[in-house]
Design brief:
Radius of gyration: 22 Å
Largest sheet: 6 strands, antiparallel, barrel
Structural class: alpha/beta
Order of helices and strands: EHEHHEHHEEEHEHHEEEEEEEEEE
Distance between the termini: 54 Å
Number of strands: 17
Number of helices: 8
Shape: globular
Helix content: 25-40%
CATH architecture of the largest domain: 3-Layer(aba) Sandwich
Strand content: 25-35%
């Protein structure tokens, strides 16, 4: 069976290729070129998808004895990932571009390309597990990776039943240490390669500088307010701040102050104390359900509103075909519109969506 291996140049995707090859698959390695200007990313050394990453993927494929191709998706990446990212920040949200990259490119365009190359499925180095249907009328399930420190199911909640049927995650049952050992045993040069940290198109991590360069304009300063509307100072452009941020505010107070709200219409930034950051409920849209066609209402599930967060118990109610309302049992800190709310039943990912609004405690 011919399979496409999505090779990023890191140890995870290279080890996934090795395991697939050992299982007897006819492997073809592919690397997606996503951003046209790679010099900054390569110099930063902490972001994915640099020229060096492409070379590392090519070297791993050569070592494994499989063909390797580079697919130019720069235009699609700009249209489906960078532009929505910038627009979301300009609306005062904090988006997760990795989720959109998975949704629009890795598990959409790449699956389409696999069909063109007569490949039955694609393989990636994600730490998650797929469970096939157990009986007629049952569904494909997405489960957490075995290594809780590396579990990536959160950024895969958008996968459809059709996509789950054509995707493999060979690393789902392994720890990071085991994966590095596999790569080292195969003589792969990237076996001990450091992991990428920054968003690939913002290698320095400064979203404000990136957006100003991308838009060709400066985002105007505005008033920093307290919860009563009193002016405390001036901000440097709303896109440079996120909810819950404490550092770099340029405002002194008798108590620690944090970004509690952003108002793009008025171009104001509101600060509050720690207690002002907590929310009791949220509404999410663009919801994709994996474990069920629809949710019984209500249902108690564990919910993550950030990638590295531990699940928090919440009452989840489906309010539309692609919408849910969540009521947390305990108020949650800095729940941020634009991020994903993903809900679990134990090890099984039930579904997820984009946070659209939150309500205080």
């Amino acid at each position: 069976m011919r399979v496409l291996i999505a090779m990023s140049g890191g140890v995870d995707s290279s080890a996934a290729a090795a395991l697939t090859l050992d299982a007897g698959g006819e492997c073809v390695g592919v690397t997606m070129k996503l951003v046209a200007n790679r010099e900054n990313a390569a110099a930063a050394g902490r972001s994915c998808c640099s020229y060096q990453d492409i070379n590392d993927a090519r070297a791993a494929a050569w070592k494994l004895g499989i063909p390797h191709y580079v697919l130019n998706y720069t235009e699609a990446f700009t249209r489906h990932v960078i532009e929505p990212f910038v627009e979301s920040y300009e609306r005062g949200e904090t988006p997760n571009p990795c989720i959109e990259c998975n949704r629009r490119l890795k598990f959409s365009l790449l699956l389409h390309r696999a069909g063109e190359l007569e490949a039955a499925r694609i393989v990636t180095g994600h730490y998650a597990r797929i469970e096939p249907p157990r009986g007629p009328g049952r569904r494909w399930l997405l489960k957490k990776g075995r290594d809780p420190r590396k579990d990536q199911s959160y950024v895969l909640y958008m996968l459809s039943q059709e996509e789950l049927a054509r995707v493999s995650f060979p690393l789902g049952g392994l720890t990071k240490g085991e994966v590095r050992d596999i790569a080292e045993s195969r003589g792969l040069a990237n076996a001990r390669k450091e992991e990428s940290q920054d968003i690939c198109f913002v290698p320095g991590g400064d979203y404000g500088d990136f957006m100003e360069a991308y838009r060709g304009k400066s985002y105007p300063p505005g008033d920093i307010l307290d919860r009563e509307g009193r002016v405390l100072g001036r901000h440097r452009g709303l896109v440079r701040y996120t909810l819950g941020q404490r550092r770099g505010l340029g405002v002194a107070g008798g108590v620690p102050l944090y970004v509690a709200a952003k108002d793009p219409a008025e171009n104001t930034l509101t600060l509050g104390e720690e207690r002002d950051l907590y929310s009791r409920s949220l509404d999410a849209g663009g919801v994709n359900l994996i474990a069920a066609e629809a949710l019984p209402s209500p249902v108690r599930l564990g919910v993550k509103t950030r990638y590295l967060q531990k699940e928090q118990w919440a009452r989840v109610e489906q309010t539309g075909p692609a919408a849910v309302h969540l009521e947390f049992e305990e108020p949650q800190r800095a729940v941020t519109p634009g991020q994903a709310a993903v809900f679990y039943d134990g090890e099984t990912l039930v579904g997820g969506g984009t946070i659209e609004s939150v309500r205080g405690s």
